[in-house]
Amino acid sequence: MIYLDAAGTTPVRREVLEAMWPYLTGDFGNASSHHELGERARAALESARADVARVLGCRSGEVTFTSGGTEADNLAVKGIALARRTADARRNRVAVSAIEHPAVLESARSLARLHGFAVDVVPVDGAGRITPESLAAVVGPETAVVSVMYANNEVGTVQPLAELAAVASAARVPLHTDAVQAAGMLPLDVRELGVDALSISGHKLGAPKGVGVLYSAGRLTVEPLVDGGGQERGLRSGTENVAGAVALATALRLAEAERPTAAPRLAGLRRAFVDRVTELVPDAVITGDPEQRLPGSASFCFPRVSGESVLLELERRGVVCSSGSACAAGSSDPSHVLLALGIDAETAQTAVRFTLPPTITREELETAALALGDSYAAVTGIAHR
User: Fold this and answer.
1) pLDDT tens for residues 26-73?
2) What are phi and psi of 322, to 5 degrees?
3) Angstrom distance (rounded) from CA 227 to CA 79
4) Is residue 107 within 8 Å of 178, Cβ to Cβ?
5) Using CB atoms within 10 A of its CB, is residue 191 exposed (0-12), middle (13-18) or buried (19+)?
6) What are the Aminotransferase class V domain coordinates in residue numbering (predicted)?
7) How many angstroms separate the CA atoms of 281 and 266, rounded?
8) Whole-angstrom Cα distance, residue 93 to residue 154?
9) 0.85 exceeded by the pTM?
10) Residue 272: which residues within 8 A CB-CB, separation 6 or more?
11) Are strands 197-201 and 285-286 parallel, antiparallel or unpaired?
12) Is the distance from CB of 254 to CB of 202 less than 8 angstroms?
């Protein structure tokens, strides 16, 4: 099997398993317990928090462990918006980009439905990029929070985040970014990015599913969504997932150490793969920004061809990829991301996404490209070159 769905999830790294194993067995204590076993768990948790903070360039106290990227996004969008409106009743609007992950979009819709917020949607251009001007046209004195993802999970487009953060800062509006796909591939220093909140998910990095992180600047007030014993600075009550925190911190640290060589390597492989696909299947249309994109992300539309049919043919040939976000699997609706890029609904249904794991080889990608050509021929009856 050639696995090209790293944006969906990744296998747990051996180093991560070894790091977390002690906290699933001998050092299984509750980090809130005041005995030796609990203290050892607490020490591991805080060490993991410090490791994450070093990668993000923030203070340990600004790192909150969550159950994943979705919870981190919910806590950021809802928690910041509710806290800001409590402090200033005028702050009754939230702004999100048109291509956000459902975790952000549904959080904004929930604020509108349950709390009376208005939602402003920031448009993108045909490559999926947001301009500072388009963001400036939306944010204002009534905006409680802005959420713009760092890199898109479907088309791979990377946003000019520092420029957008400057616009939000000038309007005195905190900016949250969903960095789930960017982690391990792009710089994450929150000071350089200028963001006020940032979300990460462990299972995109080689940690298990079920653990994530929210960075929120210490100056920000965030309304907790889960009430209870007051763990995680009172932002996320519940018994701490020590093994998960250790796993995420280990995976993030390893990915960040490898990024200077891994990211350029993947970018080169991705460019060669795109060239080969368009050579074999001239009808293939690359989606997203051709250059300002994640190193390992290649997404296409195949006009007049069912994307699901291509996926099935690829899997028969041992290549695993996807049609878009795993969170939208099973939906018959066209991708909201592709529609926002100006792609018509019929063409949006033909999407196929390839996201490269760090271990992929040039030979595997050549095999995958040939399999795609054969799959396209099988579906259309048109032989590839």
Assistant:
1) 999 999 999 999 999 999 999 999 999 999 999 999 999 999 999 999
2) -150, 175
3) 12
4) no
5) exposed
6) 2-366
7) 22
8) 27
9) yes
10) 362, 365
11) unpaired
12) no
